[in-house]
Structures are given as structure tokens and as C-alpha cells.
Recover the amino acids of this structure.
């Protein structure tokens, strides 16, 4: 089923729902903790499938539920004034030569203000040379377009868990722990596909002929160019059910294992807009999209060793590699592209989003009182999110996990994407009344925005509320 949605109001729409654990926005305190299992946050149960059963070595039964979990964030490429640069590049590509410059060439090549066929050919050649050899075009082709191709990206994302999820039920007489979760997340991403600016002799001849016919009323036509703003968007709805249980108990610790099945409903959209016909980069990112919807099943498996002073674990997400379809870009849009150039082939190449399997590793070391914790997490391989960005997280954190309702818990950390954007974050979080959590991730890499201010290239924030009984 297809529907249209404004990306500009995506945040408001999704917060009305109640986040998955999308690769780009870890939920709740996981933003600071990483995916390491811990006793303080219910969100650790949506990471390692074996984590929930680790509570059974602490008490006979436990019930935990998430009341609220929402989050949001953004990311931009390492290009200063990204949107303004894209829009100014459009202006240069659209009109790389002025009427004044044309008049100068015309009066030089056709001094009697009428052109012979030979003079007309010279006029056309000089127009092409004036454009293709200009300093502005050299800057565009050698500096601006390559930078936009590599780093001209911008993303916004939001998400949340449905109220009362995750729901974790741990009972020894049931042999283990059950975890029910329902969540939704969404992302919109704009990237730039570059086509070097070049004025062909054929187009130059057309311009020369039109100008010579009536210089007084001549209007410079748009120069053909396939540079493109590509927007991809995704809305991922997930319902999961997991079970974990102890499989080995020793004096030195306990081994738990878990499995989780996930039902996905994924809506994907992509839309291409040529730079020369765009209404602005910001408007393109916010443009309406037509989504295609497809469903799939994911399977996670994991294991966790829990000792008094440490934990180590490993798990695999989406072991069976579920796949989802993108919509086809409008054939009328594709027909406007030059088939001899590479932009068209890039637009038609990607038709599916594959949730590739990913190995994740975790470790934690506890103080004797169990209140002080040092956590580490590492993704074993790189995967892509629904809009094609690469991720491989590494996380480090230290925390004070309080047992008191009145003394807050606190945590600080560092996370880095070891693939793709290579962005780094300082993270911090607080837990109040053992229930309310606020976590932020502040990007350590910065850019200059369209207003000349220095801002982080990325930032994320999560708010959560949970209860235990």
C-alpha cells in the first residue's frame, strides 16, 4: 500500500506513537551504555537476546515495563554551509556565463553584429571554451562537486517504543525470561550525486544561434547537467518476542542464552531531483515521498556470561537477512537523464534494503558493590541502515548505577562509528528515581551551518521512563 507523508512533520507524527533499536539511534540509556547488558536499564533487554535471563540470578521473579521511550537526532556531512553551498552550486551550473559575457564574445566574433557561418561556428566554440575553461567551472568540478559527492549528506531521524514496551517477565518457575517489544523508527536522508559541468559543442551552437537571432531579448537557457539530490526515507515498525534462559551455572558465574523473533513492517521511499530543477536543498529534503511497504521476519540469537564482577556476551542480529523493497523512481524522471553518464545507473541500481547479519560483542566490569560499572561494546562487522549509510559502532562508558530512589544514577561515555561517516560522540546520561532517564550524544566533529555558526555534525537525545515490580 502506498501513501504520502511530509518528511518535515515526521517527528511530530512518530512521537504520537511511542524506538526500535535502529542502528543509527540506540534507544534510551543504550545511547550512553552502548549495547552492554546492565541491571539499571530495561533497554538492555532489546540488545543481547540473552540479557533478560541474567536477572534470574538476582531474584526469583521480576516484571519490568517501559512507560515511555522516545528519541531523535540529526547528522550532516563535513561540508560547511551545506544547503547554501548546494543552492549556490545550482546557480553556477544553471547560468555559468552571463549575458554580458556573451555580448562581449558576440561583438568580438561577429564585429558587424551579423554572423557568417564561419563566425557563427567560432562564436559557438568560444562560448563552450568560456564556460568549460572558466575559473568558476574549474572550482565547481575540481572542488565543490567532489566534496558534495562524498560528504554532501544530511539526515534526520526519530523513533519510540509503544507504551508498556519493552515488557520483560522473568520467572524461575517458567525457566527463563520473556521479552515483548513494539517500536517504530523513521529516518530521512539526502545525498548528492555529482555530474561534472561541461558545455557540449552542440549546446553551445544552440546558444550561439539563439543569441545571434535576437541579442536584445535573449535568455540564457539552463545548461544540461545531471547532478542530483537523492532523498531516501524509511519508516520501520517492529514487533518482537524473545526468550532467554540459564543454560549453565557454575560458582564462578552463569551462562544464559536467548533467541528473538522480529516481525518487520518496512516502508521505504526514494526520490531523485535534478539540482538544476530543484527548489532548494532544504525543500528537497522535506519533499513528499511515495512509500512502498513490505514485511519480513528477523531472527536474533545471543549468549551472555554473568559473573559477580563482570559480564561478557555476544549476539547476532538478523541472522536470516530479511530484505525489503524500495519504490521505483518515476520513469518520467529517469527519462530526463543522459544514459551515457553515470548518474542514471546509480539511480536504478539500488532496489532493496537488506538487513544484513551483524555480530555484536559486549563486556562490563563491576565494583564489589555492583554500583560502579565500566562497559565496552563493539560491532564485529559493518552494516547499512535503511537509507544506505554504513555503521560499525564502538562504545565505552562508565556509570554509577544507584540502588536509591533519591540518589540519581549517572553515566558518561564515548561512542564512535568506525565505518561510514566516522563520527565520534561524547555521551552522558542521568537516571532519576530509578525510572526516568535522559541521555544525550554530542558530536565531537563540527561544521559551519548556513548562518555561519559552528555546530556539531551530529547529535542525539533520548528520554525514557520505566517501571519495575
Amino acid at each position: 500500500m502506498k501513501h504520502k507523508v511530509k518528511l518535515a512533520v515526521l517527528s511530530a507524527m512518530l512521537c504520537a506513537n511511542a524506538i526500535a533499536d535502529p542502528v543509527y539511534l540506540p534507544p534510551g540509556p543504550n545511547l550512553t551504555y552502548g549495547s552492554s547488558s546492565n541491571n539499571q536499564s530495561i533497554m538492555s533487554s532489546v540488545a543481547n537476546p540473552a540479557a533478560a535471563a541474567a536477572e534470574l540470578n538476582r531474584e526469583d521473579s521480576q516484571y519490568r515495563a517501559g512507560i515511555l521511550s522516545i528519541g531523535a537526532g540529526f547528522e550532516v556531512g563535513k561540508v560547511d554551509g551545506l544547503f547554501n553551498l548546494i543552492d549556490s552550486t545550482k546557480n553556477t551550473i544553471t547560468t555559468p556565463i552571463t549575458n554580458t559575457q556573451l555580448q562581449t564574445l558576440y561583438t568580438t566574433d561577429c564585429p558587424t553584429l551579423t554572423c557568417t557561418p564561419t563566425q557563427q561556428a567560432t562564436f559557438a566554440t568560444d562560448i563552450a571554451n568560456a564556460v568549460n575553461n572558466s575559473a568558476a567551472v574549474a572550482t565547481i568540478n575540481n572542488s565543490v562537486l567532489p566534496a558534495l559527492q562524498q560528504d554532501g549528506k544530511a539526515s534526520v531521524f526519530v523513533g519510540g517504543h509503544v507504551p508498556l514496551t519493552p515488557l520483560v517477565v522473568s520467572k524461575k518457575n517458567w525457566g527463563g525470561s520473556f521479552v515483548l517489544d513494539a517500536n517504530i523508527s523513521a529516518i530521512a536522508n539526502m545525498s548528492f550525486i555529482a555530474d561534472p559541468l561541461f558545455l557540449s559543442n552542440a549546446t553551445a551552437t544552440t546558444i550561439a544561434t539563439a543569441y545571434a537571432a535576437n541579442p536584445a531579448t535573449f535568455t540564457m537557457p539552463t545548461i544540461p547537467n545531471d547532478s542530483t539530490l537523492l532523498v531516501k526515507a524509511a519508516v520501520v515498525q517492529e514487533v518482537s518476542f524473545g526468550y532467554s534462559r540459564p543454560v549453565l551455572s557454575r560458582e564462578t558465574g552463569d551462562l544464559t542464552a536467548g533467541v528473538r523473533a522480529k516481525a518487520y513492517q518496512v516502508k521505504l521511499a526514494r526520490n531523485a531531483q535534478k539540482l538544476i530543477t530543484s527548489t532548494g536543498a532544504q525543500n528537497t529534503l522535506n519533499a513528499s515521498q511515495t512509500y512502498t511497504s513490505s514485511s519480513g521476519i528477523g531472527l536474533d540469537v545471543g549468549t551472555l556470561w554473568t559473573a559477580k564482577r563482570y559480564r561478557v556476551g555476544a549476539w547476532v542480529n538478523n541472522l536470516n537477512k530479511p530484505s525489503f523493497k524500495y519504490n521505483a523512481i518515476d520513469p518520467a524522471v529517469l527519462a530526463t537523464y543522459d544514459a551515457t553518464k553515470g548518474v542514471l545507473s546509480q539511480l536504478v541500481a539500488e532496489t532493496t534494503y537488506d538487513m544484513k547479519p551483524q555480530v555484536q560483542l559486549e563486556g562490563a566490569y563491576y565494583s564489589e558493590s555492583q554500583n560502579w560499572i565500566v562497559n565496552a561494546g563493539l560491532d564485529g562487522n559493518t552494516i547499512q541502515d535503511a537509507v544506505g549509510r554504513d555503521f560499525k559502532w564502538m562504545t565505552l562508558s562508565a556509570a554509577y548505577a544507584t540502588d536509591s530512589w533519591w540518589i540519581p544514577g549517572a553515566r558518561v561515555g564515548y561512542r564512535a562509528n568506525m565505518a561510514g561517516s566516522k563520527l565520534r560522540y561524547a555521551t552522558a546520561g542521568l537516571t532519576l528515581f530509578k525510572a526516568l532517564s535522559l541521555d544525550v550524544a554530542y558530536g565531537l566533529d563540527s561544521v559551519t551551518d548556513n548562518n555561519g555558526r559552528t555546530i556539531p555534525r551530529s547529535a542525539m537525545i533520548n528520554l525514557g521512563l520505566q517501571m519495575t515490580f
Remarks:
- The first strand starts at residue 4 and ends at 6.
- The chain has one domain: 4-78+155-194+230-468.
- Residues 391 and 419 are 5 Å apart (CA to CA).
